[in-house]
Structure formats: C-alpha cells, structure tokens
Amino acid sequence: MRNARKSVAQLIGAQVLEVVFTSGGSEANNEVLMGVFSAINSGKNKKFQQQERNELVVSSVEHPSVMKASAHLAQIGVVVKKIPVNRDGSIDLEVFAQMLSSKTALVSMMFANNETGHMFPIQKMVKIAHEHGAYFHCDAVQALGKCPVDVKKWDVDFASFSAHKFYALKGTGVLYQKKGVIFEPLIHGGGQERGRRAGTENVLSVAAFGEMAKKYEEIDTRAATMKELRIYLESLLLEQISDIEILGAKGKRLPNTVNALVSGIDGETLLMNLDLEGVSVSTGAACSSGSREPSPVLLAMGFSVAEAQRSLRMSLGWDTSKQELDDFVTILKSVVTRVRKLL
Amino acid sequence: MEQEAENIQNNAKKRVLVAMSGGVDSSVAAALLKEQGYDVVGVTMQVWDYSEDQCDINEGNGTCCSSIDVDDARAVADHLDIPFYVINCEEEFKVNVIDDFVNSYLEGKTPIPCVNCNSFLKFDFLIQKMKELNCDYLATGHYATITTSRTGQASIVTSADDWKDQTYFLFGIQKEIISSLLFPVGTWKKPELRAYAEEKGLPVFNKKDSTGICFVGPSGYAAFVESQVGKDKIRPGQIKLYPSGEVMAEHHGIHNFTYGQRKGLGVSYNEPLYVMKVDGETDTVWLCEENDLYSSELKINNVNLLDEIVDGEVLNTKIRFAHKGADARFEKCEDGFVVKFSQPQRSITPGQAAVFYRDQQLLGGGWIL
C-alpha cells in the first residue's frame, strides 16, 4: 500500500498523504460532493463556519456520478447551479464567473468529457473559484494516461481518478484531497486511509495501480502518438464518409476520443454492425443495453434527440495502430454505405 | 450425410437474425440454426419498460431494470456463443400494440395484441433490422412452417404441432417477406423440443411456457387498461338482459367484459347467463342464455391476404386462437369480406381476427367488426 501510494502520488503530482484510495471514480466523486456539504452542515469545516456557503456549481455535462450526487444534494437543501455548455461542448468563462459568489462552497468540473473528449480550462476555473473562496473539485477520471496530470499545478482542492483508465485493474480509484481541505468521509468505520475512507483496502488492485503508475514517464510520448493518430482518424473519417460531423472539432480535446454524428444512421444500428465486424465502439456513453435514452451530454450540448441517437464514440488506446484505424474506417464506410441505401 | 454437410456449408454463407424472447421455443430456434451452420445473430426486443412499475431486484440478473426474459435470452446466446443484442422498441410497442389494446377494450372489443406485435414489430421493425444487419433471413420461434412452391412462391403453412400452431397470429405480415422468414421449430412437437433443449444444455429448457399477454401482469388485463388511461375514459353503464332489455345490474366499465364471458358478471338468474354483446356506444353490456350466443355470419375489415382467394370460396376459418376452425363462405364486400359459416359459431367477438386457410395454407385474415 505504501509503495503504491507513493507511485500514485508521483503520477498525479500530489504528496503521499493526499492520496486516498477508493473503490473507483464514482466513489471518489460522491465522497467529495457529499463530504464537503456534510462537513459544512456538521460544523466540522471551521473555515466555512461563519459563512453561508450552501451552493454547488457543476457543468451540465458531468459524469452521472456527479450529476446524480448533485441531484441528491439538491433534494437535501443544497443549491445546485449548472453551467450550460455550447454545441462544441465548451463553457463561457464569464458565465461561469457570474454563477459563483461568496455562497459557493464547491465547484465540481470534469477535466475532460467522457463522451466528447472536450477539455475544460481547469486552471482558469480554479482561479475564479478560489477568488470566491470556494473549493474546486476536478473529476479527472478521463485525464490519466492521456494527458500530463499535475494536481499542484492545477491548484485543485480535490480530484478523482480511476485505476482502470490507466490500464490497471477495475475496482480502485483515487481521491486527491489537498492537505488542509475538509470533508466528511462517505464511509465511516475503521481507521483505513487515515479515517478518510474506512473499509478493508482492495490491496491487489491498489498494488496493480501502483505498478502501472510507475509508467508515468511514458505518458507524454503516448499522448503525442495518440493525438497524431486521432487527427489521422478524423481526417480519414471526413475524407471517406459523407455527412459526418466531428463533435467539438475546434476545441481542445483529449488525444484519444472522437465523437462523430453519422447522418441518417441510428447509432444503435452502427454499433451492432461494427460489433459483428469485430469492432468495439460506443454510442454516446458506455452503452446500457436495451436503453435508447439519448446521451444527456449531447442533449446538454444542444443536439436534438435524433441527432444524439446518431452519435458514435471512438476511443484510441496506447496500443492502437494506424493499420487498425485504416481497417476500421474501411469497415465503417462499407457499413454506412450499405445501411444508408436501405433508408 | 454428405447432403447434410453440404447444407451446412451453404448455410454458413447465410446470416440469420433470430428474434429471441428468452423462452424455450425461440432459444431452440437459435440452437437449431446454429447447428445447421448458419451465421446466427440473436436479438431481443425490449418492448416494455419494466422499471416503471415493478423494479424488483430479484427479477433481473444484471441490472434491476432489465427483465428476466432479456437475461434469459442473453444467457442462451452466450451458451450458443452467438452475438446478441437488445433492441429497444418501447416506443414502437406502445404506439402499435399497447395503445390499440387499451382503446379496443374501451370500445367494447376484445383485442389480440400478439397479432399487432407480429405485424408491426417482429415482422416489420425486425425485418428492417435484418436488412440493416446484413442478414439474409429473420427467424422466430413460432410454430408455423414455410413451404416454397415450384414457381418459387413462399407460403405459411400450419405447424407439425396442432396444439401449438401459431399461424393464427401471423396473418398480418406482408406476403413479400415470407421468403425471408425461417421458423425452425415449426416442424417440431413441444415435448421433443423441450427434450432437445435439455440435451443441448439450454439454460431455459424447463422454463414455463408463457401464457396470456406478455405485458399484462398478475392483476389482470382490466387493471392494466385502467393503469394506462385517465379515469374519465372509464365509464360506468348498465347490464341488460337480452331480449327483454331488463336492467340486471350496473357495471363500472365495459373493459371488464368480453364476449361469451360467464363468470364475474355480478348478476343472479335462474339460468346461466353469458355476455352476448358489449356496446361501446351506449356502454351497455348485454347478457343472454347460451343458445343466443350463436351466430352464422360476421364481417371483417383491414384484411391482409397472403395468397389469392376466389369470391364465394369456402375456407376453413378460425374466429379466435383456440377455435378449431369451421367452413365459411367468403363474399367480398366494400371494405372487406362477409363471412358466412355453414354452422352457427359461438361468441363471434369484435376485435378478434377471422383467419382463413386452404387446407393447411394460411391465406390471410381480417379483423372482426
């Protein structure tokens, strides 16, 4: 545990004792959202004691673990403000600044969107939040392995990570808690994680994460390769397939995520066809089988239900090759051409 | 043996989309197709959101909101090692099946939702999916068979198991698609089919046959109808005796009654009484003694023909699924047919279908007015 904590701390740019192991990204997100307001209400947070801080600010495209925790907080009296996003997935920093006040206790914004790859300007947002005396939480689950991660440079108060996004085992996440910021644990019990997260540790999974974390030096070159390939994939898609739109193409995005709207074809149909050809992609967020609910992220970006149902999310990994992308686009093209003829 | 091997080789080039309900029939259909060498793709239509009213954590294996049938279908597909997808058809199902079902009852008819499900979902929506997924055929677990004439015309013919024959529910499909259909279990009898399922280790081999209507729960169809409409749509009315017109009782909605019903009428009389007619215009339920239940003539509209019939032809006709069939003369009229039986038939029921056959061949059907 000690070694793993050390390598993970190094990976994310934290001090060793600022690393809290959890069961995953969702737990870490819940821990922060529930824990910050819990500590305010119980008076444990002395810093906010004489203040009326009862507001949470989130973006409208956060992961469900943040969205649903926010909805729960709203039910128990917290004022939740959601920042709208544009059609390219970006926010307006001025609107963001206007939403914050001396009542804001916590801002929770993702580093990059899990469906579109769009990256928020974290450092600028942190600065604004701190000017209002609020805590800043960054759901950075999508960042690991794809971008340099440095919580100190970002200057965030909390950040969430997930081990399996960094090719380690599922079942482990990390909550970065800046020294001195206060929250109430989500799980009470024994003294594990210095009382911040009770329950027997998932030692095997934590150790695996620790081992993988040692590869932090590779991230820069891996990310550069992925970005090059992503640009290649996008140019191939635009060149080979008519009526295809790449979401948020102009904005800053993760090096590995492409989300495209393929006109005239239901994402579900594309997904099944590609799967039959041995290609794994996703429509919107990880597909919950049998559900045709359009992606809330795309709806929040202003797309219609019909448009949202035509989205196709492609992700690249560390080992994706150019040949695989060529093959993929060839398959996609043949499927799209064939299915469009049936319309 | 050589012929069989050759068939398997030819089939390998053909891709089949098999509609899997999670029941034993469609599971065996998938298993047989796989055995015959086809490239099999399984699909389940998620037709009704079970999460709204009964989110029972014991029900599903995976998430609480997938029904046990979807999980069963997936388990069979895993066992057979075939690709499997769940397609959400809740909207299509609501529009084409549920709404019609509810409205029919409120009009005093007794609907058969399975026909609409076949006509609009299995053999329309899924036919489109079949094409989209580059499949050559669509297969289901129906008890029906398909024959192809020397001229290449495909027809639906009753199945080997008379008890299970489901051709009655298939009359509404478009005849152009028959040649794209496969009914692998149509040549089987149910007990043999179960034995096969067990022998192949299909996880659903001893699952109970589904009876009744899939979306109607244990509280019954009347409660279902009430759950789907506003209170203002449920109108009370009178129960009268035929032919005197004597008022026997009051009822709280005509959707509680079906033609020929004897139980639960809430009246007492010295002879057994049956529902003779449910009048949706006046909300009156007419009761009669048994001999008044019989009539020799009916009219059908929205007729779907799978093959040509001659005006005046006498055809074997079923007026409900469980009816054993009777000879009737078909006379064309403006928007359908007048069907004249040689023997009077009991409780001819509006909303049910009259489905007609020449020998074993399904010729078509229409809705009884």
Mean pLDDT of chain A: 93
Order of helices and strands of chain A: HEHEHEHEHEHEEHHEEHHHEH
CATH architecture of the largest domain in chain B: 3-Layer(aba) Sandwich
Radius of gyration of chain B: 22 Å
* Secondary structure tally: strands of chain A: 10
**Percentage of β-strand residues of chain B:** 25-35%
Which structural class do the helices and strands of chain A define? alpha/beta
**What is the makeup of the main sheet of chain B?**
6 strands, antiparallel, barrel
Distance between the termini of chain A: 57 Å
In terms of quaternary structure, the protein is: heterodimer
Distance between the termini of chain B: 53 Å
Short structural description:
Chain A has helices spanning 2-12, 25-42, 64-75, 93-99, 122-131, 151-154, 203-213, 219-240, 267-276, 296-300, 305-308, 322-341; strands spanning 19-22, 55-59, 79-83, 104-110, 135-139, 158-162, 173-177, 244-246, 257-262, 311-315. With 343 residues, chain A is α/β, with parallel strands linked by helices. In chain A, the strands form two sheets. Chain A has a seven-stranded mixed beta sheet, sandwiched between helices. A three-stranded antiparallel beta sheet of chain A has the order 8-9-10.
Notes on the structure:
The complex is a heterodimer of chains A (343) and B (369). With 343 residues, chain A is an alpha/beta fold. Chain A is 39% helix and 15% strand. Chain A has helices at residues 2-12, 25-42, 64-75, 93-99, 122-131, 151-154, 203-213, 219-240, 267-276, 296-300, 305-308, 322-341; strands spanning 19-22, 55-59, 79-83, 104-110, 135-139, 158-162, 173-177, 244-246, 257-262, 311-315. Chain A has a 7-stranded mixed sheet, sandwiched between helices. A 3-stranded antiparallel sheet of chain A has the order 8-9-10. The longest helix of chain A has 22 residues, at 219-240. Chain A is globular and about 65 Å long. Residues 284-289 of chain A have low confidence and may be disordered. By secondary structure, chain B is α/β, with parallel strands linked by helices. Chain B has 3 domains: 13-141 and 184-199, HUPs (Rossmann fold, 3-Layer(aba) Sandwich); 235-288, SH3 type barrels (Roll), CATH 2.30.30; 294-368, Elongation Factor Tu (Ef-tu), domain 3, CATH 2.40.30.10. Chain B has 7 helices and 17 strands. In chain B, the strands form 4 sheets. Chain B has a 6-stranded antiparallel barrel. A 5-stranded parallel sheet of chain B has the order 3-2-1-4-7, sandwiched between helices. In chain B, helix 2 (24-35) links the parallel strand 1 (15-19) and strand 2. Chain B is globular and about 75 Å long. The N and C termini of chain B lie far apart (53 Å). Mean pLDDT of chain B is 90; it is low at 51-65. Chain A binds chain B through residues 268-269, 272-273, 275-276, 288-292, 338-339, 342, and chain B through 41, 44, 46, 63, 66, 70, 83, 85-88, 90-91, 128-129, 131-134.
